[in-house]
Structure formats: C-alpha cells, structure tokens
C-alpha cells in the first residue's frame, strides 16, 4: 500500500499537517530563518558576500550553475532580479539565491550559485513576468529533494519553497522542477514522475497577519512571498464563532459531512460520517471528544474493497474556536476488521464558523493574535448536505473549465492520500 513521499522535514510554513511519520509540525503564519551556511566549497564566498554586502541587478536572463560556471545549470536569474553577490574571478559572480534553502537535520542552509559577470550590473532593470512553462504543481512540499542532475546518486542541493512549482521535464524515474521567487528560477531534478496536481497540504494559504506592527499579506504562490498592506483586502474573511457548537453537535449526533475534492478531473463530493464519538475530558471551555470519521462509500485499495476511516480528536480553545485532528486514514474490511496498511499522519483544522450549509474549517491550528484574515477559498467547507456540496462542485468546475490552473472556489478539501481522491 502506497505511502506519501512528499512530506519531508522542512521549514515551518503555512499548512495543514501537524504531525506525521513523514513530516514535522506546521503552523499558520510561521517561518524559519535560514542560517547563512553552505557547502565547504561555497562557504568562503558566502562570507565575502556577507562582509561586503554587494548587491547587483540582473541586466538580462542568465543561467545559474552549481559549484562553478562549468557546473550543472540549477536555475536562471531573470532580468530585474536584485541579488546579493560576491566576485569570484574576472568571469563569474557567486549569487546567494533569494529565499531558497537546502533543508537538513541541522537546519536550513542558503544556496550559492555562479553566474557570468556580464549578466549583472548596478543599473536597475524592470522585472519581467515570471516563467510559466511546464505543468503546474500546487502546494509542493519543502521536503521534496532536488538534485542538480538527472542522477539521484548525486548530492541533494536544494529544496523548493512551500508553494507552487512546475514540472518542465517529466520522466518515470526523474522529473525536472522549476520554481520562481524573487526574480530567480530554481531548477532541480526530483525522484519520480510527479504526476500529482496538488501537494499534501495547503502551504500557500493566502493570509494577512500582523507582524512588527504592520499588516503583511502572504499572497502565494510560495510561502515566502509577502506584501506590506495598509488595510485588509475586502474579500478576506475571519472567524465568526456565533455558531461554535455546530461542529461538536454534529459529532455527538453522528452526523455526516461532505468533502468537496478536486485533483486531475472535475470536482466531486464524498460523504464522511462521525461515529463512536465519546467524551474523554471536560474543561471550563467545553468538552474534549474522540471517535471516528468514516467514509460512507467504500473504495478499492490494492484490489480490495475497503472502508476508509480517520481517528478524530476535538479540543475546544479559550478563544471560542476549536481544533479537530484527523489521524490516519486506516483501512477496514466491510465487516469492520482493520487491514494492514494505511497511514500514520495527523491533519489539523481549526473550526472558524458556519454557513447555512457548511462548517468552515481552516487548515492548521486555531488562529492566534497574529493572524488577521485569510482568503475564503483557502478554508475548507465541510458541507452538511450533499446538495450543497454538489452545488459548490458545479461552481468550482465552471471556474476550472475557464482556467484549469485557477484556485477552485467553494472550500475544496485537500489531503495527501491518493486513495481518497477517487
């Protein structure tokens, strides 16, 4: 039975996954600062950059090479990019790639690449549009390892930012990935065909947060993109907890929710039902529940017809919100016998309100004081009726029919489990 492979250790970023055998904790509006450390070969060059603080503009597009100008091409710098550099010799500059990192057990490290000196200069140049070649991958995990060549035996040199990327060369064994940030395009080879459309969690939730007294918009397409704001965009939303018991009541009564899902084909609806919910603790602000969330429709996994199930935890928070965790999924036979396989991941959501026909579920932990608002299409809607979900699916399919790369509206559910997407 397949296991998710894209959930790796990475920078803390906007996302869903809060605990997993393949991943680390992720919270809303959280970032990690990379240490300015690179390979032994490039470390003296990076030290020179930090000491001299020399920055130049890209006068034209140019290839970025690993280790030296004779090394493999691992990116492109685009006209208008403003980057930190250090002179290497009469032919080359060393460039610290803005935003991009190599993740490791000791923490993130910066990436240094080499570019022809004629590519850079002191004159400001208007930046062009980012490249849009290749097939879009939304919400790529920062745990995806990138290699400089089509050889997985070579050393990993980078990890993508949490966010959107593109497959520019697809192969069965290795695929070449492109990601753009700050005027620089990172290019690297990843293991596998990368034949998915969306990654395992929403790492590019569009949020407005309060940071150092300023309003900051995280607009995507990567978690590192940011814009200072004077006010919150009119279309953004926040919590409305007047109906804060809607979720817990549905759990206690064994009610159903309908998930709107969309992968490669049209958006569709799947019904899940709360079962065996039991009180396990009582607090001043509410009751803690545990139980199961079972998919009503059976599915076929490795040739066997099975039922999918998540273990559910519900915890109220002092803010009036609550957090729900889904652990699994696990597979059961039709007679209720647990089968081997499944996953050992935990997905977290904050309940942030209810509409007339849906529960509003925000990926991640309950919002803290820093989080001001978010885009409505980046929260999930767990619909309380099948018809409401089908209506939302129709609206999403109309949007996707006009633009297959659009963010589908309607509160689409996202997870990393291929079996549940059918």
Query: Which class of secondary structure composition applies to the elements?
Result: mainly beta
Which term fits the overall shape? globular
Please indicate the percent range of residues in DSSP E strands (runs of 2 or more).
Answer: 35-45%
Q: Which percent range fits the helix content?
A: under 10%
**How many helices does DSSP assign?**
3
- Give Rg in angstroms: 23 Å
Biggest pleated sheet: 10 strands, antiparallel
Q: What letter string, H or E per element, gives the SSE order? A: EHEEEEEEEEEEEEEEHEEEEEEEEEEH
Gap between N and C termini, in Å? Answer: 16 Å
Could you please describe the fold and organization of this structure?
- By secondary structure, the protein is mostly beta strands.
- The protein has three helices and 25 strands.
- Strand 16 (256-261) and strand 17 (268-283) form a beta hairpin.
């Amino acid at each position: 039975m397949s296991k998710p492979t894209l959930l790796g250790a990475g920078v803390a970023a906007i996302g869903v996954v809060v605990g997993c055998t393949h991943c680390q904790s992720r919270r809303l509006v959280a970032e990690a600062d990379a240490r300015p450390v690179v390979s032994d070969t490039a470390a003296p060059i990076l030290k020179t950059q930090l000491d001299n603080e020399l920055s130049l503009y890209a006068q034209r597009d140019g290839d970025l090479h690993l280790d030296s100008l004779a090394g493999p091409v691992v990116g492109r710098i685009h006209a208008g990019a403003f980057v930190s550099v250090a002179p290497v010799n009469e032919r080359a500059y060393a460039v610290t790639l803005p935003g991009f990192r190599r993740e490791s057990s000791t923490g993130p490290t910066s990436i240094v690449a080499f570019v022809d000196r004629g590519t850079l200069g002191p004159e400001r140049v208007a930046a062009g549009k980012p490249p849009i070649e290749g097939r879009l991958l939304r919400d790529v995990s920062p745990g995806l390892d990138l290699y400089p060549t089509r050889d997985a035996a070579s050393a990993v040199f980078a990890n993508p930012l949490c966010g959107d990327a593109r497959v520019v060369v697809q192969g069965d064994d290795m695929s070449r990935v492109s990601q753009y940030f700050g005027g620089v395009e990172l290019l690297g080879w990843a293991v596998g065909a990368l034949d998915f459309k969306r990654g395992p969690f929403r790492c590019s939730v569009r949020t407005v947060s309060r940071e150092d007294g300023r309003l900051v918009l995280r607009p995507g397409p990567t978690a590192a993109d940011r814009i200072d704001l004077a006010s919150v965009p009119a279309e953004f939303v926040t919590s409305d907890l007047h109906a804060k018991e809607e979720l817990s009541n549905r759990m206690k009564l064994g009610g159903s929710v309908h998930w709107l899902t969309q992968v490669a084909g049209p958006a569709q609806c799947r019904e899940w039902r709360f079962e065996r919910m039991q009180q396990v603790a009582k607090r001043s602000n509410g009751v803690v529940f545990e139980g199961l969330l079972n998919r009503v429709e059976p599915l076929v996994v490795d040739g066997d017809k099975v039922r999918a199930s998540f273990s559910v935890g519900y915890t109220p928070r002092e803010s009036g919100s609550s957090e729900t965790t889904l652990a699994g999924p696990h597979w059961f036979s039709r007679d209720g016998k647990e089968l081997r396989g499944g996953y050992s991941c935990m997905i977290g959501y904050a309940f942030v309100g209810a509409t007339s026909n849906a529960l509003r579920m925000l990926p991640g932990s309950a919002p803290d004081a820093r989080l001001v608002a978010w885009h409505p299409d980046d929260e999930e809607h767990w619909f309380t009726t099948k018809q409401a979900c089908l209506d939302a699916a129709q609206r999403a399919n109309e949007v996707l029919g006009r633009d297959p790369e659009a963010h589908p509206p309607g509160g689409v559910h996202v997870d990393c489990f291929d079996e549940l997407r059918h």
